[in-house]
Design a protein that fits this description.
There is one protein chain. About 45% of the residues lie in helices and about 15% in strands. It has 33 helices and 22 strands. Helix 13 (about 315-325) crosses helix 14 (about 330-370). It is globular. It binds adenosine-5'-triphosphate. It comes from Actinocorallia aurantiaca. It holds the Pfam family UvrD_C_2.
Length: about 800
């Protein structure tokens, strides 16, 4: 029998869903009214806009269907219901408050010490449209009405949410955002905010809610310029991609670092050495240097045949042309136009002079023979005066059409794409030596790596595009616009709607081609976003920061990361150092201190690992103490791994498991677990078991983690201790470390399962679950499970 409180809340929630249905019906109906409306031009324009708005609204209503109302706050004199969107009742009074509205804030920030005048905070748990449970926190018992005192129910909503099994996808936490996270979510929009926090402190989830908050609060600016979220890889972005749509925000661009440069989808990685070199900020100057080396001057004069005539480019003329081009403050491909112009002029001069020399002899004879007028005699003494400017222009044009001339110019100052420039550089040992990076040599046509992407972006800046063709297109577009205006004016005259400005109407018509979508923004390297969020920001190299900063000239950014988790050889060790070149000290930091993911016993192991890397580092405090003790299993070969994984899967039920391993033993792990996806694609997270390296596991979480080869993980990368810390903190419930040889000393807290090499059967018999159900364990053993063999 449901409690009175539950019945009352059900009534309220049913009413709120009724308001949602009415709003939805209104939105749907609005199109019908529009569609039936008049056929005037202006009406048609408005209708197009309304249809777009309607679609957005309906998508938002669909997104908030689940968990529409999740909270309630009571003050002495009023009660507010908090939900995913704001709704008004039939009288126009607020019925449901949007979680992002200022009035909703105490729901997230009231504490026992500072209840912000709240008497009670209530969480409503719903399934579909049914209220299934309530959680209350009472701040002022005295102020509660007597009837309400009996309605305290349930355990803390946060813990209930944290105990749920993982699905391979992050979901929103709008009902349980904690006060320190709320500060991150609602921090001002201007400037750079760094959110530093240990593993599981909700940095990612808070940053995503912040995106939704900013889009709600600064809708006008941000819907035009857009919000970009940069994450470490496609798998991570897939893990988080449902959070914002679940909050009703569908127009945010998500971009892994490897695709920040449009048209390139880099997933390959580098050796730590190459990664460090490519990520180093000095690479910007090195690329500039390498590009200068592509602007050549011949050591000697070059003579060749063009248009059936010999022609010479002197080394001096080429040098002058290069200096002139370099003095123009423009990127390489634009400077090239100056170089081309000067070289063609020099060649044309040379050709005309030759021609003049050839005609000189007969002219002199004429002079000697005499009998010419005085003016003609004067002219013939200096034949170059006979030449006209258009001769020179004509000669330049003819030369430009000559393939030999093109070849010469391309060899001296080539027009380059970023891809060609970098590919040429990596394939040229001499050019690499010239910039001091011989180690970057690689075979032509090798796939792009994630560390190449910022270099491609940098190269795009240095090279620029010769946009003279685009400018011509723009002029044509302008012409077209004028014609459109003329047409619009004509329409207005016919329809009698003369009060609307024709230029505005033509502009509206263009806008109707649709607002810029997130995908279109991603395809435009020069798009200036209104706000950029960078997740796992500690992994970005200096060069990657340069590329990211270009996307947000207004420098409105949220940067979330943890310096104790830096794995990349080129990643951050210090936020101030990393940000200084871009914004000096104009940035602020908020810290998150509570770990919502990893239970206390596992976190104690992680803390020891962190202390072994950095004795001063502080790990976050775990919110949960429950969970099984983490254990260590010695297993020299991995033939017991399948049995162990299966037993772990049984323990976690519907949840997800990751085997996190060193790069060195990855193949061996993959061979031992043939049912797990062999490659880490974004879809791999949908599987119950996934195999990852420590670097790949960054940002993700799993109910159970089986960690293979801790020594290997630590030794493989320059920040290996950090990688081990990351791997351990991915578990939400269970951790098993598989080691060969002695257990690394910093893992001494793990409960050892058998001091002798792994007994393939003992872990099944000893597991607490099997202690409760020994028959099931014996059955499985009899069937050969847990032994890595086909049958017993
Ligand atoms: N307020 C909250 N309510 C419910 N769950 C939360 C809350 N804050 C965080 N969590 C959960 O804790 C887990 C960790 O959050 P998240 O991945 O955002 O942490 P993180 O700081 O980015 O971690 P890492 O640095 O390890 O990647 C997630 O499952 C998230 O949903």
């Amino acid at each position: 029998m449901p409690s009175r409180a539950l019945v009352e809340e059900q009534e309220k929630v049913t009413w709120l869903y009724g308001l949602l249905d009415a709003a939805r019906a209104r939105a749907e109906g609005s199109e019908r009214i529009e569609a039936g409306g008049g056929g005037g031009f202006q009406q048609r324009v408005d209708r197009e806009t309304a249809v777009h708005e309607k679609e957005k609204k309906l998508a938002q209503y669909a997104a908030v269907e689940h968990g529409l109302c999740f909270g309630r706050i009571d003050r002495k004199d009023d009660t507010l219901y908090i939900g995913r969107i704001g709704l008004r009742d039939e009288e126009g009074d607020p019925a449901l408050i949007d979680w992002r509205a200022p009035a909703a804030r105490p729901f997230y920030t009231a504490t026992a010490a500072d209840p912000e005048k709240l008497v009670r905070r209530r969480h409503l748990h719903t399934r579909g449209r049914k209220v299934v449970d309530l959680d209350d926190e009472v701040f002022d018992l005295e102020a509660m009405r007597p009837g309400d005192r009996a309605s305290l129910v349930g355990e803390a909503a946060l813990l209930a949410s944290l105990r749920r099994g993982r699905t391979g996808r992050m979901s929103d936490v709008v009902a349980t955002i904690q006060a320190e996270q709320d500060e991150v979510v609602r921090a001002g929009f201007q400037g750079i905010l760094v959110v530093q926090g240990g593993p599981g402190t909700g940095k990612t989830v808070a940053a995503l809610h912040r995106a939704a908050y900013l889009l709600y609060t600064y809708r006008e600016t941000l819907s035009r310029r857009g919000v970009l979220i940069v994450g470490p890889n496609p798998t991570f972005l897939r893990y988080i991609e449902r959070v914002l749509p679940g909050l009703g925000e569908t127009d945010v661009a998500l971009c892994p670092l490897g695709t920040l440069y449009p048209g390139v989808h880099a997933t390959a990685t580098e050796t730590p050495e190459a990664e460090a070199v490519k990520g180093d900020g000095r690479m910007a100057e090195r690329l500039e240097e390498a590009l200068k080396a592509r602007q050549r001057v011949p050591d000697e004069d070059v003579t060749f045949e063009a248009d059936g005539m010999p022609v010479t480019l002197t080394s001096k003329a080429a040098l002058r042309a290069r200096e002139h081009a370099r003095n123009v403050r423009a990127p390489h491909n634009v400077q090239r136009r100056v170089f081309v112009h000067d070289v063609l002029a020099a060649l044309a001069e040379d050709q005309l002079e030759r021609m003049e020399r050839e005609t000189d002899e007969p002219l002199q004879r004429l002079l000697e023979e005499g009998g010419l007028s005085k003016e003609l005699q004067e002219l013939l003494k200096e034949p170059s005066r006979l030449r006209e400017d258009h001769d020179l222009e004509l000669a330049k044009e003819t030369l430009w059409d000559d393939p030999e001339v093109r070849r010469l110019i391309d060899s001296l100052w080539p027009e380059l794409t970023p891809e060609r420039f970098l590919n040429d550089l990596y394939a040229d040992p001499e050019a690499l030596r010239h910039i001091g990076c011989p180690e970057l040599r690689r075979a032509p046509g090798s796939p792009w790596t994630v560390a190449d992407v910022p270099l491609l972006d940098e190269a795009a800046e240095l090279l620029g595009v010769d946009d003279s063709a685009d400018k011509a297109a723009e002029r044509r577009e302008e012409q077209r616009r004028r014609e459109e205006e003329r047409y619009a004016r004509g329409v207005l005259q016919i329809s009698g709607l003369t009060e609307v400005d024709a230029g505005m109407l033509a502009e509206r018509q263009r806008e109707e081609r649709g607002p810029v979508t997130a995908a279109e923004r991603l395809a435009d390297r020069e798009w200036a976003y209104g706000h950029v969020i960078v997740d796992e920001a500690q992994e970005l190299s200096s060069m990657a920061w340069r590329a990211v900063m270009r996307r947000v000239p207004a420098k409105s950014m949220t940067i979330v990361g943890d310096l104790a988790q830096t794995g990349s050889a080129a990643g951050a060790r210090d936020w101030a150092e990393m940000l200084e070149p871009f914004v000096g000290d104009r940035w602020r930091e908020l810290r998150l201190l509570v770990n919502y993911r990893t239970p206390g016993a596992i976190m104690a192991v992680a803390e020891d690992v962190l202390a072994s890397v950095d004795p001063h580092a502080v790990a976050p405090r775990s919110v949960r103490e429950e969970g099984d003790p983490p254990k260590a299993v010695r297993m020299d070969a991995l033939d017991g791994l399948p049995g162990l994984v299966e037993a772990e899967l049984e323990r976690i039920g519907e949840g997800r498991l990751a085997v996190i391993t060193s790069r060195a033993r990855r193949q061996e792990v993959t061979a031992a677990l043939p049912d797990a996806p062999a490659e880490v694609t974004p879809e791999a997270l949908d599987q119950p078991v996934v195999i990852l390296t420590a670097a790949e596991s960054k940002g993700l979480e799993f109910d159970a983690v089986v960690l293979v080869d801790p020594d290997g993980i630590r030794e493989e990368s320059p920040n290996g201790g950090h990688d081990l810390y990351v791997a351990i903190t991915r578990a939400t419930r269970r951790l098993t470390v598989i080691h060969s040889g002695d257990l690394p000393p910093e893992l001494h807290r793990l409960v050892r399962e058998g001091s002798r090499p792994f007994d393939e059967t003992s872990h099944l018999l000893n597991s607490p679950e099997n202690a409760r159900c020994p028959r099931a364990a014996t059955d499985r053993l009899e069937a050969g499970e847990g032994t890595g063999r086909e049958s017993g």
